[in-house]
């Protein structure tokens, strides 16, 4: 589908939407129903609504409906208020953008209107430093060459200025003609691709004789860009409002479900099933008791002729009583603490990058605990592991190597002499370096020339050529001016054959204005340039140069050139223009035409550019690998360069400690044989402590992912490290998806626009605010300034978040199980106010202080990264640990109930009095439990726990002084009774005694690695790592004959720390044999003491 935009013609302007921007989710009319619909989409909210509605039936409700409706309305009101506030802020932002004043051309004159009133077809006038209000096709600028510069940081995060140029059909039009211009633009329907526009423009006479001119993205000014270094520019509005490319790109990303959230949902479902079982059993028992024993009691009266639904009354009462077992406050509590986790990341000064003035930022506040369960990290190379500061180091020109001795070709005397003597090969090489790019030279106020480049490689090449006296002085439109050894050389750029990830090369066609000759200048990857060499050229030297430089970890580019005959160029130019005018499959057609010209090149040489590793990268990768995290490096660089960088940053180990396996091949048979060999090697050597890794290139990967996905999945599970070279952005995303399909938690980290798909596909996306702009950082869940901060993000913030959330979620269920205090009549022990206050106030505030709890200091965690295995294996939240909390809650419920009943068996007490004793005992137990479970009890935590306990008495003393409250004088009478205080002591002692004994036994005789480290911290002695800590403590434990291990092993676990193999996320699906017969079934093998992948064991 396509649209036709008639320029400056009001009769067609109402066919499309106006320029009003709207990013709001709600309106005043639909806010309440839409928000409620979104909240009630969750099963838990539907469940609570059902319970609240049942409580409105007075016949079955054992408590006041306010005990459920109050918290439910409060929680929904909090969520709705947050949504309304966020939406109001979006409305204010939209209003400011919509009411901004802009210039348009109407009836031949310029006039002011609001941005929201712009219509498709209007001519919009933009002044310097103004924001572009909608998507425009550029038709005029203040520059005589028809170019302008725009800043696209708000659109794609790239900070370098980009050049935009008017289409050739508009060249030479003055301001008066631009006011009266008429024509039509044929363009596709709105889409979100900010890097592509396949359109055509045709001006009506008298401006031009109906000649069709192709339009590309370089002829556009997109919404939210800023005009820079240009006095004015004007363009035709083609997409407006929410139909602009930026508007189409907006949208709410799909929410990510953490492993812990998934586990909580499963446990909630299990509790619901348990509730149903309890309701059926006790409801049936209640009905039997009613029909047998109850009718015999003189104080119980039942009608003989009861309606049919009476049989459901007692079961429904039990359902209402048991409903509190699923805590209504858990969602709000988790949302609150997760927001604080995100703020801790934002506030962390140790993750602040002073070099770029960039703090860490958590854009997604809901997945912090997933950071502690990361199992695979997939990382980009350039700009992520490296600095992305390109420095021209060496080159090979015409078979001669420069810079080998000094390590800096720019200081190589031999090269400097060749430049001074105007060596033909060197001149050609420098010319390609200078012209084959999209660099913009800008003169500063001091007269110095600065270069603005979209690629750091191009910037390095142009600056290197400038240092060798080949200076790009000016580039106006299609004209380029070069100064070389005091001589001025003029070139006209006829065509640009743009770089794409498929072609892996870029070319320009230039006209030497002095000689009148036409040349094709090309640069690109070695596999894209060297095969295009003319027949008979000796290319072995260049191939050897590429390999040599790659082994040094340098980035290589091959440069070539060819003189074109005029007739050949003119014929090709017509095909190129025709391909550029296509609205369907334009990119494919252009690539096909380009290939017809890019052949028979004279290979001039190879450039080698250094991209140094960032500070702290090797140490960060080493520590994260010790923590059990597997690394995959996905890069567009050639294989040898990637391998060298991987060695330098500790991603792989050299022989004999490590072994690298290669998956290569150009044909399917070659790839299959290579994959078979690597997979069999992996299977055979699994039991060896040797570190195995595999490397695969993009060509082989394409074949594997399309046909042998199952075999590659098995390889991914067996391998701890992988290097994938020459991969495209889509292949990066495919690899992330493949690992996720194996049920692994993945983290993808990158810094450029080509990493966005990978980042969004991963469970956790981390963007680095780098030199390639902010595109990756904006698409990510977390953004950091440097790769080394990833270590702290995972080990400190991720681990603490997991530990705290695991305790908070299980404790929320634990405190709710106290509702299981009732006889078979379905009567509640607690009154409605007490139930509501118990859940919302008495027990929720203390546990929220877990956001400050630290089981180990940050220093200890960083020194012992192996303890992250506890989080990865889900050892703090799984069915086993939940069963432990469930058992504790039932025990404590029985303790409170039985001791209270027996203590007051002979007392003449009211029901409310007995209820208050039980409630006091419950809250006292809660305070002891939270205090005991805190690892680092700070003053704030102590005040929150025990201050809240004291607040319980203050509040109830106040309520007891109100005659109409239903609890008049109860608290005063209880506190004067010795029985009350003895009961509380008994409840605390009997309830906490076994818990303390079990905790002491575990800590003393069955310590985990974390317990050992805690003991070392609290002894104020020297801090040990897990390796030497075992030997240090073994001597202290010899007398007790207790064996222990500081690493989590398979057959050793405590009651509350289940086996790694029993963890719900540690078990993985068994991979079947490969789908094609050349792969043999995996051989039986011994379990490694150093498992290559903990999840596979």
Automatic annotation (TrEMBL):
GO biological process: phospholipid translocation
Membrane topology: Multi-pass membrane protein
Enzyme's top EC category: translocase
Domain P-type ATPase N-terminal residues, every copy: 5-69
Keywords for the protein's UniProt record, in alphabetical order: ATP-binding, Magnesium, Membrane, Metal-binding, Nucleotide-binding, Translocase, Transmembrane, Transmembrane helix
Pfam families noted in UniProt: Cation_ATPase (PF13246), E1-E2_ATPase (PF00122), Hydrolase_3 (PF08282), PhoLip_ATPase_C (PF16212), PhoLip_ATPase_N (PF16209)
Gene3D superfamilies found in the cross-reference section: Calcium-transporting ATPase, cytoplasmic domain N, Calcium-transporting ATPase, cytoplasmic transduction domain A, HAD superfamily/HAD-like
Subcellular location: Endomembrane system; Membrane
P-type ATPase A domain segment(s): 99-160
Active-site residues (renumbered): 380 (4-aspartylphosphate intermediate)
Positions bound to ATP: 380-382, 458, 499, 523, 555, 635-637, 726, 732, 754-755
EC number: 7.6.2.1
Keyword Transmembrane helix: yes
Family of this protein: Belongs to the cation transport ATPase (P-type) (TC 3.A.3) family. Type IV subfamily.
Name of the featured protein: Phospholipid-transporting ATPase
Taxonomic source organism: Leersia perrieri
Lineage, highest ranks first: Eukaryota, Viridiplantae, Streptophyta, Embryophyta, Tracheophyta
């Amino acid at each position: 589908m396509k649209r036709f935009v008639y320029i400056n013609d009001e009769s067609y302007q109402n066919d499309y939407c106006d320029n009003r921007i709207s990013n709001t989710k709600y309106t005043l009319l639909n806010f309440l129903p839409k928000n409620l619909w979104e909240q009630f989409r969750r099963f838990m909210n539907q469940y609570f609504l059902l319970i609240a509605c049942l409580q409105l039936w007075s016949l079955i409700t054992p408590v006041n409906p306010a005990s459920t409706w109050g918290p439910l309305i409060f929680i929904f009101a909090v969520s709705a208020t947050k949504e309304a506030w966020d939406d109001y802020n979006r409305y204010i932002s939209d209003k400011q953008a919509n009411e901004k004043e802009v210039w348009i051309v109407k009836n031949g004159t310029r006039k002011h209107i609001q941005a929201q009133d712009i219509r498709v077809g209007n001519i919009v006038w933009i002044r310097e430093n103004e924001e572009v209000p909608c998507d425009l096709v550029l038709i005029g600028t203040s520059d005589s060459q028809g170019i302008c510069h725009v800043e696209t940081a708000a659109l794609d995060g790239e900070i370098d200025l980009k050049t935009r140029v008017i289409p050739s059909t508009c060249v030479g039009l003055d301001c008066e003609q631009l006011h009266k211009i008429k024509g039509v633009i044929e363009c596709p329907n709105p889409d979100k691709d900010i890097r592509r526009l396949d359109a055509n423009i045709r001006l009506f006479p008298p401006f031009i004789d109906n000649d069709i001119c192709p339009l590309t993205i370089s002829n556009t000014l997109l919404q939210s860009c800023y005009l820079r270094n240009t006095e004015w520019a004007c363009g035709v509005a083609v997409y407006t409002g929410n139909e602009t490319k930026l508007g189409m790109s907006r949208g709410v990303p799909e929410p990510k479900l953490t492993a812990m959230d998934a586990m909580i949902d499963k446990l909630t479902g299990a509790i619901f099933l348990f509730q149903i079982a309890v309701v059926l059993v006790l409801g049936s028992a209640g009905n039997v008791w009613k029909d047998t024993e109850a009718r015999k009691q003189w104080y119980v009266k039942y009608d003989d002729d009861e309606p049919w639904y009476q049989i459901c009354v007692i079961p429904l009462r039990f359902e209402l009583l048991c409903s509190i077992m699923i805590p209504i406050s858990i969602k709000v509590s988790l949302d609150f603490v997760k927001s604080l986790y995100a703020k801790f990341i934002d506030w962390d000064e140790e993750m602040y990058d002073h070099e770029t003035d960039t703090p860490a930022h958590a854009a997604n506040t809901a997945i912090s605990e997933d950071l502690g369960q990361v199992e695979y990290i997939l990382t980009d190379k350039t700009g992520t592991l490296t600095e992305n500061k390109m420095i021209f180091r060496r080159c090979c020109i015409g078979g001669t190597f420069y810079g080998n001795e000094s390590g800096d070709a720019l200081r190589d005397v031999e090269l400097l002499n060749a430049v001074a003597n105007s060596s033909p090969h060197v001149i050609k090489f420098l010319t390609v370096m200078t012209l084959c790019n999209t660099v913009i030279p800008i003169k500063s106020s001091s007269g110095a020339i600065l270069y603005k480049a979209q690629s750091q490689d191009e910037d390095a090449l142009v600056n290197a050529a400038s240092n060798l006296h080949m200076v790009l002085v000016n580039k106006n439109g299609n004209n380029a001016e070069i100064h070389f050894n005091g001589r001025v050389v003029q070139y006209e750029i006829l065509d640009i054959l743009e770089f794409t990830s498929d072609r892996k090369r870029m070319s320009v066609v230039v006209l030497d204005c002095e000689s009148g000759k036409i040349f094709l200048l090309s640069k690109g990857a070695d596999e894209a340039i060297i095969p295009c060499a003319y027949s008979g050229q000796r290319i072995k030297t260049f191939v050897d140069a590429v390999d040599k430089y790659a082994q040094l970890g340098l980035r290589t580019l091959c440069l070539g050139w060819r003189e074109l005959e005029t007739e050949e160029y003119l014929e090709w130019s017509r095909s190129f223009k025709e391909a550029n005018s296509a609205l369907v499959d334009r990119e494919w057609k252009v690539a096909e035409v380009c290939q017809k010209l890019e052949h028979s090149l004279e290979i001039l040489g190879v450039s080698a550019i250094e991209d140094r590793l960032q500070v702290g990268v090797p140490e960060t990768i080493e520590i994260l690998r010790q923590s059990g995290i597997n690394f995959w490096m996905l890069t567009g660089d050639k294989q040898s360069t990637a391998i060298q960088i991987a060695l330098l940053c500790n991603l792989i180990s050299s022989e004999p400690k490590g072994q690298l396996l290669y998956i290569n091949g150009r044909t399917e048979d070659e790839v299959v044989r290579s994959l078979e060999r690597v997979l069999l090697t992996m299977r055979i050597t699994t039991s060896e402590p040797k570190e195995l890794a595999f490397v695969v290139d993009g060509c082989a990967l394409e074949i594997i992912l399309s046909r042998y996905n199952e075999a590659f999945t098995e390889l991914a599970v067996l391998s701890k490290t992988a290097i994938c070279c020459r991969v495209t952005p889509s292949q990066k995303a495919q690899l992330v998806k493949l690992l996720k399909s194996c049920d692994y938690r993945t983290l993808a980290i990158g810094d450029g626009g080509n990493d966005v798909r990978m980042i969004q596909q991963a469970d956790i996306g981390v963007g680095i605010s780098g030199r390639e702009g902010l595109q990756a950082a904006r698409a990510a869940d977390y953004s950091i300034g440097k790769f080394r901060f990833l270590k702290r993000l995972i080990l400190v913030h991720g681990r603490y978040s997991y530990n705290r959330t695991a305790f908070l979620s299980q404790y929320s269920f634990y405190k709710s199980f106290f509702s299981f205090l009732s006889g078979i009549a379905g009567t509640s022990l607690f009154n409605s106010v007490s139930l509501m206050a118990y859940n919302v106030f008495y027990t929720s505030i203390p546990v929220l202080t877990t956001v400050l709890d630290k089981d180990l200091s940050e220093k200890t965690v960083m020194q012992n990264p192996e303890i992250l295995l506890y989080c990865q294996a889900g050892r703090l939240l799984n069915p086993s640990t939940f069963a432990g909390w469930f058992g504790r809650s039932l025990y404590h419920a029985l303790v409170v109930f039985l001791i209270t009943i027996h203590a007051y068996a002979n007392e003449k007490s009211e029901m409310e009095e007995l209820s208050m004793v039980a409630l006091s005992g419950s809250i006292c137990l809660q305070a002891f439990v939270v205090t005991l479970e805190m690892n680092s009890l700070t003053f704030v935590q102590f005040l929150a726990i025990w201050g809240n306990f004291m607040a319980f008495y203050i509040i109830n003393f106040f309520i007891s002084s109100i005659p109409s409250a239903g609890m008049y004088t109860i608290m005063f009478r209880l506190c004067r009774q010795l029985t009350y205080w003895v009961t509380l002591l008994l409840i605390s002692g009997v309830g906490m005694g076994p818990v303390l004994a079990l905790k002491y036994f575990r800590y003393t005789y069955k310590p985990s690695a974390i317990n050992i480290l805690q003991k070392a911290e609290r002894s104020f002695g020297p801090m040990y790592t897990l390796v030497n800590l075992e030997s240090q403590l073994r001597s202290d434990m010899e007398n007790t004959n207790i064996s222990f291990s500081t690493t989590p092993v398979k057959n050793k676990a405590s009651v509350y720390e289940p086996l790694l193999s029993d963890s719900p996320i540690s078990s993985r699906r068994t991979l079947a044999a490969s789908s094609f017969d050349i792969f043999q079934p995996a051989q039986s093998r011994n379990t490694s003491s150093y498992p290559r992948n903990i999840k596979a064991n």
